[in-house]
Write the structure tokens for this entry.
Amino acid sequence: MSKIHNFSAGPCILPPQVIEGAADAVTELNGIGLSLIEISHRSKDFVAVMDEARQLVRELLNLPDRYEVLFLQGGASLGFLTTAYNFLSPDGKAAYVNTGTWAKSAVKEANFVGKAEVVASSETEGNKLIPEIPHVGSDYDYLHITSNNTIYGTQYKSFPKPDCNLICDMSSDIFSKEINVEDFALIYAGAQKNMGPAGTVLYIVDTEKLGKSNRPIPSYLDLQIHIKKESMFNTPPVFPVYASMLMLRWLKDLGGVKEIATLNRQKADLMYSEIDRNSLFVGHAEAAHRSDMNATFMLKDENLGAEFDEMWKAAGISGIKGHRSIGGYRASMYNALPIASVQALVDVMKELESKKS
Ligand SMILES: *Cc1c(COP(=O)(O)O)cnc(C)c1O
């Protein structure tokens, strides 16, 4: 496998075993003489894949029986709309926290369906923090949050406790640390940030909270239909589901979410201590709200940019250019990124500093 240190913000780095296993299955699945991508999704070999993927999600996150797991399509972006159709009633309203680009997109889509109100926002602070969230009462159908803000590098350290359903877009930190699923009526996450390749989106839903939006729902957006069909209402995205299943197996073998959380903490500590220590760099997000997944930072003197870029590229580092909306740098440290890659980046930052002093 390559020696590239892959800090891509999404699609993300995957463990070499996952890439190899997925490649093997494309050539031939389970010794059946056929490829994963040329057999019926209703064949026993693929049904077993879907079942295992859903079961691994249950195990890794300790799901109570009333929660269902789905692997669908449309990305988190369609999830914004699916959320509203399934949980927002025609005369009700939903509360949203605007913590950046994706959170804002969620508001936009919900407004196609019903009334979505922004109850807290970090926009005037340049999305450098998670804002104070007022108590959200039962007069709202749900409160929607974005647990990790991939672009700005902020992350909730604890979750609000509204008197209504809590719904979370966990696209960029699902399976990165332990969560109490019972706090949420719905969690959804595009696979490509921390779970697998692009092409599938995971839904984890409390079935007791479904079926109450009191509106007609187009079939593909109706989570109850997908549950009834066990995630096979239509042809599922077989390859991304298979690769995600391998990634979840990898995570289980590693010791599960508790173990990966420790490793993620170590990577984030290493990264942020260098950002804070190094006289040439400054972090973007406020320290108390920093993301363990996406570290955003800048050079204090932009004139050093060309030299720094040349140095990290020469060190085999890839994907740390910041998102076009905020510039600077972004080191995405998803589950599969080894700490050695973070160390490689830290070494380059130190080297730049010593050259300049
Ligand atoms: C990338 C991202 C999205 C968009 O996901 P798609 O699967 O591309 O629709 C939504 N929310 C968050 C937090 C993201 O990081």
Summary: The chain has a mean pLDDT of 97. The pocket of pyridoxal-5'-phosphate is lined by residues 10, 75-77, 102, 146, 150, 169, 171-172, 190, 193, 201 (CB under 6 Å). Residues 256-277 form the longest helix (22 residues). The first strand starts at residue 5 and ends at 6.
